[in-house]
Amino acid sequence: MRKTTLIITALFTALLLCGVAYAENGIKLTNTAQKETIVTKEDGTKEVVLEQPDKVLPGDTIVYTIMYENQGKDTAEKVAVNNPIPENTLYLDGSAQGVGTEIRFSVDNGATFDFPGNLKVENPDGTERMAGPGDYSAVRWALGSDLAPGAKGSVSFKVKIK
Amino acid sequence: MKRLAIVALALFAVAFMTTGAWAEGTKAGTTVSNTAYATYNIGAGATDYTAQSGAETFTVDELVNVELVHIQTNNVQVSLDEQDAVTVFEITNTGNGDENYHLVANSGYTTLLDGVSDDDFNPLNPIIYIDVNDDGAYDGGDSLFNSTNYPAGLSLIPDQTISLLVLNDIPDSGINVGEFGLTRLSCYSQTFGQGAAAGNTSASASNGANASVAGSTAGLGVDEWFYELVSVSISIDKSHFLDDGIATGDYYIPGATITYTLEVSASGAGDATNLLITDGIPVGTVFVSGSLKLDGVSVVDGSAVGGGTDFTDAADSDGATYISTTTTDANGDTCNGQVTFTFADLTAQALDTFSAADGAHVLSFQVTIIETGVTP
User: Fold this and answer.
1) What is the dihedral of CA A138, A142, A143, A144, to 10 degrees?
2) Which of B40, B299, B316, B366 could form a disulfide with B291 if both were Cys (CB 3.0 to 4.6 A apart)?
């Protein structure tokens, strides 16, 4: 499984290098990871705390936020942000967010994307079943509008450390 | 004692459910890396462009957890002054990193872990062996756990389970059949020690992680199990058959043959080992060579106690023997030699441990009368 992922990542990187061009001063992506902890306060209410992932243990929830900004001179069209689910983590159901984006998932390491209800995976016996969030290998946010120079936004998703 | 076992099982079940963390997870020290990509177009029909974020990485830290449970389901049956009685435990590293565990055996407690019941006696001299061959029995291949052999504790990789043996000696007096004594095994992690609490953190750099965190068990484990003093009693029913060669009447005359039959059975709880049965040859008779039998089958006479035909296929010293030396029996009567049936160290064979479930076994031998005035 790991081997397959690596090969596909390598292929993807190769495609990036030879198939498409990098835009000078185009869209810039930044990516941050924060650990999400739920703290019970003295009055009994619960508070979600996001902090630097200094101590990360199996079962912890990590929030990834990807900020995008068009630093170029031209308007970017058909913008899509694509994030493979990191190894050793599981996508948390319903956690992908992005205002004004259409969110699709992949169960084939980013080769194809679709909405959750349309995704299927193969059982060991050859039959198919509906894919669950644990099957997702990548998330894709398609921006609903063009990104003018200087425009920016962010998308996010959460994973649980296996 | 059944009740006790059920209580212990219930405790185990509760511990199991509340501990929860069965294991594993991503191994401590693993790097998790995330990179995002973007694709877009500029201008109609223009080239596709792509962007890539930097790789955001962090390291998974060590979660220290352990599970320590007893394995036996019935009390360990022991006898007075028994040496090296064995209780069996299992330790599992339910954390996500390589961790060392220190083990402590203590048989001096009176109150059980349930905090309610008391035991009846204290087993002696607890020592811990790592059950290297994982057979649940104490044997030569097992490794003594002490601070010399394991100065940094017992090393376990995540999810690894190792069987542990606690050996005890049983007191030689002061306890009664049916009483039980507990022996307790506990463990603590090398990283967090004995006083650990869930949530403790340590900046130890083991496992390639940045830190270690004490999980719900805090790296502490404890369980106990019980020895029960049992007793088995052996009864021997002796009878004889006279063959005087005369059709009517019994005449104890020179030349007549007496067949002595010893029917041996066990009653009570537990097993008897090292069973030795001797019987004297009455004065005025001589032993009939070759007449030793076990369950009707002839056994070869050995030259010394414990010699002769092996009763079982175990390679031990059981057998039957006739010794001609004049002896005095338990009643103070002089005997013209004696026969001995030895069931020495019979383990895991049909006749090995002699328990009530074995039913009766019949030992027999013959003598010939050589003098007048003999009574059987």
Assistant:
1) -150
2) B366
- Model confidence over B71-124: pLDDT tens digits? 999 899 888 888 999 999 999 999 999 999 999 999 999 999 999 899 999 999
Across B204-288, the runs of DSSP E, i.e. the strands, are: 212-214, 221-229, 232-243, 257-268, 275-282, 285-287
Q: What is the mean pLDDT of chain B?
A: 82
- Inter-chain residue contact A56 with B42, CB threshold 8 Å: no
Q: What is the CATH number of the domain that holds A134?
A: 2.60.40.1170
ipTM of this complex prediction, to 2 decimal places:
0.81
Domain stop point among B229, B263, B294: B229
Beta bridge partners of A23: none
With cut-offs at 50, 70 and 90, classify the pLDDT of residue B24.
Answer: low
Question: A41 to chain B nearest CA, in Å?
Answer: 17
Give strand ranges (E) for A44-107.
46-51, 61-70, 76-84, 89-91, 101-106
- Contact of B217 with B21, CB cutoff 8 Å: yes
Residue closest to B351 by CA, chosen among B322, B313, B325 = B313
Nearest to B215 by CA among B10, B70, B61: B61
Residue B127 CB contacts under 8 Å (≥ 6 apart), including other chains: B105, B144, B145, B146, B166, B167
Interface test with B, best of A8, A24, A31 (most B CBs within 10 A): A31
Best to test chain B binding among A35, A57, A77 (most B CBs inside 10 Å): A57
Q: What is the CATH number of the domain that holds B241?
A: 2.60.40
The verdict on B41 touching A (C-beta cutoff 8 Å) is: yes
